[in-house]
Amino acid sequence: YSPPxxxxxxxxxxxxxxxxxxxxxxxPPKNVADVQAVNNSADYGDFQAGPAIAIAILxxxxxxxxxxxxxxxxxxxxxxxADQLIVHLLDExxxxxxxxVGRTAIVRAVGAxxxxxxxxxxxxxxxxxxxxxxxxxxxxxxxxxxxxESDISTLRVAELPLVLDFxxxxxxxxxxxxxx
Length: 180
Description:
Elements: E1 7-9, E2 21-22, E3 36-38, E4 48-49, E5 54-59, E6 62-64, E7 71-75, E8 85-90, E9 104-109, E10 116-118, E11 121-123, E12 128-131, E13 135-137, E14 143-149, E15 159-166
Parallel strand pairs: 1-3, 2-4, 7-15
Antiparallel strand pairs: 5-6, 5-8, 8-12, 9-11, 9-14, 10-13, 14-15
C-alpha cells in the first residue's frame, strides 16, 4: 500500500496512534518517507503509527529490544527484585504503543525446574507493563536465565531474555538452600 497523497497536515487521531497514517498490517505503507507531514497529532505517532510489533525492557533509561542479548538484574533469592522490571510495547518506528491496555506480560524461568517465580504477571497500561514486586526463588550465588514475554498476536519480538544474578546470602541471613 502507498499513501494516496504526498501531504498530510492538520490531522488529529481521535483515538489511538497515527495522526496522519495508521496501518494495521505487519509493516508500514510504502513510500512513507516521501510524504510530508505537518501539524498532525495522536496519542502516539503524530504522523504515523502501527500495531505493537515488539516488547522492550526499559532499564536505566535505555530500551533493550535485542532478543539475542539478555538484560541483567541483581537478585536475592526469596526477596523481591531490587529494580522494577519495566516492559514497553513498541511499533515499527520504535514508538511506545501508548494505547495498549489490558494485555499482559509474564516472566518465567528457563531451564531451571527448581526455580520459583511469583508476582510474574503485569498488565500493560498505556503500553507499559511494570513488575513492581517480582519474587524469584533459586539457589543463592548462581545465575538464572529467564524470559519476559507476551502473547499479543502482532508481536514479532514477543520474548526477551533476562539474566538474574543471585547474590550470596549475607553473613547474618539464614539460608535454607534457596532462600536468604
